[in-house]
Amino acid sequence: MKHRYLPMTDQDQAEMLAVIGAKSIEDLFADIPAAIRYDGVLPMSERMSEPELLKHMRALSDRNADFDRYASFLGAGLYDHHIPVVLNHVISRSEFYTAYTPYQPEISQGELQAIFEFQSYICELTGMKVANASMYDGSTALAEAAALASGATKRKKIIVSRAVHPEAREILLTSAHGLDLEVIEIGCVNGVTDQEALAAAITDETAAVLLQSPNFFGCIEDVKAIEPKVHQHKALLVMSVNPLSLGLLESPGVIGADIVVGDAQPLGIPASLGGPTCGFFAVSEPLMRRIPGRIVGQTVDKDGKRGFVLTLQAREQHIRREKATSNICSNQALLALCASVYMSTMGKAGMQEAALLNVRKSHYAADRAAKGSLSLPFSAPFFNEFVVKLPEGTNIDAVNRKLLAAGFIGGYDLGTAYPELQGCMLIAVTERRTKEEIDRFIDELEAIV
Amino acid sequence: MKPEKALIFELSKPGRVAYSLPECDVPETDAASLIPEHLLRSQPAELPEVYEVDVIRHYTELSRRNFGIDNGFYPLGSCTMKYNPKINEDVARFAGFAKIHPYQPEESIQGALELLYTLQHDLAALTGMDQVTLQPAAGAHGEWTGLMLIRAYHESRGEKRTKVIVPDSSHGTNPASATVAGYETITIKSNERGMVDLEALRAVVGEDTAALMLTNPSTLGLFEEQIVEIAEIVHEAGGLLYYDGANSNAIMGITRPGDMGFDVVHLNLHKTMSTPHGGGGPGAGPVGVKSKLIPFLPKPVVSKRDDGTYYWDYDRPQSIGRVKAFYGNFGILVRAYTYIRTYGPEGLRRVSELAVLNANYMMHRLAPHYEVAYPGLCKHEFVLSGRKLKEYGVRTLDVAKRLLDFGYHPPTIYFPLNVEECIMIEPTETESKETLDGFIDTMIQIAKEAQTDPELVKNAPHTTVVKRLDETTAARKPVLNCTCG
Asked: How far apart are CA A13 and CA A400, in angstroms?
């Protein structure tokens, strides 16, 4: 069989078998018992030539409604932001994307420095002292934060707001089952966590309080108001944040968070049906040696020259095995690089300007919606997402299909995850949406309902 | 001496920009009149101010200080550093794959759902399993998911089983994942042939055994010849068998974990299915199960209706729940599917045959110069011991560092833990005989250098942008960022 990725010629094969002293390739598999050998051809997708495959993949791709052809007002944890052109050029450099985890620092200084800079960016943005090299996504990072908090406080109770992303809470529950943690959910009032109920729930048995801000409804939580109560009981304050919002919103470090997690998707990472994105994980200094995953540190070489290495590895699975702080091994390095290039490109001014554009456009959209036949059930301050209530009995799934026909990807049906919010739609407006698109979208939505 | 590379933060000059955003076309209201002031940032984040050329030159320079498969041979054992096909990269960037949202109406993502459905089917066929979830983001994530499935299975039968057994040659993620899934780990020693010791296994298996986790071929590159007996021992005690698929590149189309007796399997698509490692991710770690474990799979799975349309199937009352936001690392799954279709089943079988041929050839050529830890047949990788060189004061680490001077990525070293001065070599099928010979000749030369000029080896590398780095100080006095530290 000839294949463009396989260099073996008949002559090579004969020479190599002769060195081994085998008659055929079949001889090399003599150690696999006959009873478990697979005879025949596996029933799976057939081989295609390169042109056939390109055509096939293009056809599959074309059956999806993408953000280039449809104006998206869908967010709910995954956003259609502008991706600066330079990003793809950088992460397409194959010295980066075809490398393994940087175990050999002398030939991996590029990756190691890029991760060191990513950690620096995350610390600067969140106001935290230590960040790791990334996690699978923001949701799994939140579950890891709960695990860390339980280990650090030797407590088993985790309090989480219902305004945290429903999927993140589902992952938290799966993970809590494995670690034997108790998860207590706190409800919401006016689109934000019920602070009275939260305050009442925190006790000396609480390992952590998990809040998301902006929360799943887009609303900004007043975390500062609850912070003293959390720390009074020596629990840890865990904040899940949208990194782009930190161009404008107060940093969790100043607020007093102990652990900050989030998803870097808004920082130049394609939505890609939800993955791969990139989680980040930052902690205050006392928690440094409990942080999960890879960490890069600065050091010097034999000549005293600055260099970077993977460090604090005594926490990790390949050293500690069953006693490791987490089982994470591979993370999302290439997308941490992508987020870093985004932050390098946007810089100090660009991050603020992009965040402000999101705020202004989403508020304009909310105002437009409120002026017509739609209502806004919540009055809490928000970042780039807000909730509209459609008239009683509206089927949002049906509305979204009609919006699709009109060229829009509509908002998230909140009734899916919150029975009490039947008929409510979560609408995201990023800097990519123009005033004209917003006007047409709201007009269309009003016309449909 | 090559100069130090500046950090991007050190290139900053106030007033420069590298971004381009649209003018605001809605009312330019002050942030403070839209959001209460106490919620706004008191100090802006001090991100660097650079222009676009700085960005490109900075990261291009960083890339030149990095080594990937496209730079040269990368025989990193247990990591399957095969060629990362370029068509995979192009296809994953199609707007219809890269710019779509999982919450869109199902009718607007039928192409994506069909791809996922087909991939689930293909991976099930490849591993001999009945159903596959594509949610796990990486191998270790797959292990944890698989163990949670095993836990749910035992709990559904009213059984409280507390222990997971792993061999001493297993990946560190195996015991770590067992801990996170709430299990205690029991490590058993390998026998003198590097295989699972059946007596040691029998001694620890019992009614508290939840599972045995096994990599087959093992991290020593050896096929567990007694796998059928091993499966019987574990199953008779009521335990399940977990297959760590890190080494699947040796067996595609030749034998299947499902036929060996495994109940749960994860695959590392970033190893076997050629998706790029990205410098440490993103990967994907799909998990396949036998039918008795299907009810517990994470939700949703992708299903097909009678009318031929595809949908997210959330109606799974016994599911362990969700393990990853949305539906896993879709962009990686697109690449893996593309890869499968460049080969088809017969091509994938040929891939494994050649991976094994390359490994055996290298092992035979290197055997006179380095000690082969377990002589005989190897599969896709093999393990050498560098202990013969210790008499010259040269260690395996020194050999690895010396390889850098010749433009090679070194093999995996000091793993598995049960081989002294371990060197684990995995060539993969995408390397030519010329490449293998060049590497082998270099390894032989280094072994000679160790005798004739040990200092040359011990002080390597000599040609890289930095020399050996002080890892002790890095851990003792951590400097982990350049802003707040």
From this structure: 58
Interatomic CA distance for residues B220 and B200, integer angstroms: 18
Assess whether B221 and B283 both reside in one domain: yes
Residue B372 within any structural domain of the chain: yes
Is B202 a domain residue? yes
Whether B52 sits inside 8 A of A345 (CB atoms) is yes
Who contacts A117 (Cβ-Cβ below 8 Å, separation ≥6)? A340, A344, B7, B8, B9, B482
Rounded to the nearest 10 degrees, the angle between the axes of helix A109-126 and helix B52-64 is 140
Burial A80-107 (b: 16+ CB within 10 A, else e): bbbbbebbeebbebbbbbbbbbbbbbbb
pLDDT of residue B457: 98
Q: Which of B34, B115, B332 sits opposite A276 (nearest CB)?
A: B332
- Cis peptide bond prior to B217, omega within 30° of 0: yes
Strand locations in B189-247, DSSP E? 209-215, 240-245
A317 vs B contacts (CB less than 8 Å) = 140, 172-173, 175-176
Same domain, B172 and B23: no
> Smallest Cα–Cα separation from B74: which of B351, B400, B468?
B400
Q: What is the CATH number of the domain that holds B140?
A: 3.40.640.10
Residue B78 lies in a domain: no
Shared-domain flag, residues B19 and B92: no
- Contact call for residues A211 and A168 (beta carbons, < 8 A): no
Q: Which two tokens stand for residue A162?
A: 């219902």
Tokens linked to A39:
């005879």
Question: Could you tell me the two tokens for B14?
Answer: 């106030």
pLDDT of residue B51: 98
One domain for residues B129 and B228? yes
Name which of A56, A74, A274 is nearest B325 (Cβ-Cβ): A274
Tokens of A95: 């010295």
Give B291's pLDDT tier (boundaries 50, 70, 90): very high
Residue holding tokens 């991996």?
A108
pLDDT of residue A326: 85
Domain around B408:
351-472
Structure tokens at B49: 């101010």
Residue B468 maps to a domain? yes
Q: How many CB atoms lie within 10 A of CB A416?
A: 15
Is A60 close to B469, i.e. CB distance below 8 A?
no
**Strand runs labelled E in B184-293:** 184-188, 209-215, 240-245, 264-267, 287-289
CA nearest B115 in A: which residue? A60
Q: Which residues have a Cβ under 8 Å from the Cβ of B361 and sit 6 or more positions away?
A: A16, A19, A20, B433, B436
Please state the φ and ψ torsions of residue A37, each to the nearest 5 degrees.
-75, 145
Residue B375's pLDDT is what? 94
B172/A320 Cβ within 8 A: yes
Residues A47, B341: C-beta atoms closer than 8 Å: yes
Q: Which residues of B touch A50 (CB under 8 A)?
A: 87, 342
Residues of chain A with pLDDT > 90, as a percent, come to 94
Inter-chain CB proximity B278 and A409 less than 8 Å: no
pTM beyond 0.95, yes or no: yes
A294: CB partners within 8 A, 6+ apart: A101, A115, A132, A133, A134, A310, A316, A331, A333, B280
* Cβ-based neighbours of B205, under 8 Å, separated by 6 or more: B165, B212, B233, B234, B237, B239
Per the structure, how many domains does chain B have? 3
pLDDT in tens, A186-245: 999 999 999 999 999 999 999 999 999 999 999 999 999 999 999 999 999 999 999 999
Residue B325 to chain A, least CA–CA distance (Å): 6
Residues in chain A: 449
Domain boundary among B289, B308, B342: B342
Token look-up 């059956």 returns A63
Last residue of a domain, one of B295, B320, B342: B342
C-alpha A74/C-alpha B105 separation (Å) is 11
**With contacts defined as CB-CB under 8 Å, which chain A residues touch B404?**
104, 106-107
